Structures are given as structure tokens and as C-alpha cells.
Amino acid sequence: MKVTSARFVKSATNPEHYPRDNRPEIAFMGRSNVGKSSLINSLLGTRGLARTSSTPGRTQLINFFSINDAFYFVDLPGYGYARVPRDVKKLWGPMVEKYLATRPGLVLSILITDSRHEPTELDLLMKEWLESSGKPLIIVATKADKLSSNQLRASLSRASAVLNTKEIVAYSAVNRSGAARLWKEITNRIADFK
Fold first, then answer.
1. Strands of 71-75's sheet, edge to edge?
2. Is pLDDT above 70 for 20?
3. Closest-CA residue to 63 (of 55, 52, 53, 73)
4. Distances in Å between the alpha carbon of 61 and those of 43, 75, 167, 180?
5. Which CATH number fits domain 6-193: 1.10.150.240, 3.40.1010.20, 3.40.50.300, 3.30.9.10?
6. Per-residue pLDDT tens over the stretch 62-85
7. In the predicted structure, residue 53 carries a pLDDT above the cut 60
């Protein structure tokens, strides 16, 4: 897909503030510091649209980005980071769950893991929740460029076992490996929605 425009639209904490134009939405989720913002920026071929930070837990709201004025990328807050204030952490679970459970335009959830680390119990719980809710999802292992071919193969094998799936897309925000596979899935889901 050719990205001709990508712009930040708004941040939200509850459905009253979500966009109301019924466009398809692709949600990005994963642990804090897993490379969500870098993945979004890399897919779009932009720098700095989704805020990246070396400090985990920076995304604390649901951020909507309009792509080609046709669909949304939705950056969800990362989960599992201990240094976030307790009241903020308490808000995240219900905020994200409400978004995932109620958005009619949610056509694909992209569950992001870090290829350098084994998926956590939280990653597995998120995958199982999405599946039990009937939400289409794809799992992406970021930072693939930081591993040798053999290390990446072993890592993907371990992740497949932990998450009980055969299909995990290895992705590098540096060289965009995996981008064509992801865009194909995104494009197909958007086409099915229309």
C-alpha cells in the first residue's frame, strides 16, 4: 500500500472521545518498550509521528492516526511496566479492554512482542482474550535486526511455542523486513470491512 498521508488525529481515554466516522481501525498493542511506536513509524515511512521513547510506559492514552484519510492506526498503551503510577495503571486495563471490546471498525489487532525476549504471560493472556473475543489478530516480533538468522529462528520457535501459534511475523523497523507481509494483512482486512 502506498501511504500518501499520515496524521495524528487525537488521544482518547473513553468511547465518547473516539473518532466517529466508522473507518476501519488497526490496533497496535504490546508490552511497554516493545517497539510499538517504531513499528508504526516504520510501516508509514515517517519519523516521529508516533512518539518513541527510551522510557517505557510513555503512551498512556489511546492515540488515533488517520492514514490516507481512509483508515486508522490506533496506538494502545503498553502493558506490564512497573514504574507507571498505580492510578494510571488501573485506568489502562479497563480503557484498553473497552476499546477492544466495543469498536465495530476494529479489523485487525497487531500484538507486538520483542524478538529478543520470550513472550510473557501478559502477551499470552492478551492473545487468548483477543481470540476468545473473536478479534482478528496477527503477532509481530520486532527488533529482528538485532539477532543473527540463527538466533531469530530460535527466538521465533520459542515464541510460537509460548503463544501456541505457528504464525509470527519477524519485523525490523531499521530495514523494514516484514513490512510487505504486514501491509498485505492490513490491506486484506480493510478490504473485507468495506
1. 6-12, 62-67, 71-75, 25-30, 106-114, 137-142, 168-170
2. yes
3. 73
4. 21, 8, 29, 28
5. 3.40.50.300
6. 999 999 999 999 999 887 654 545
7. no
pLDDT in tens, 176-193: 999 999 999 999 999 999
pLDDT for 91 beyond 70: no
Q: Is the pLDDT of residue 92 over 80?
A: no
Side chain identity, residue 4? T
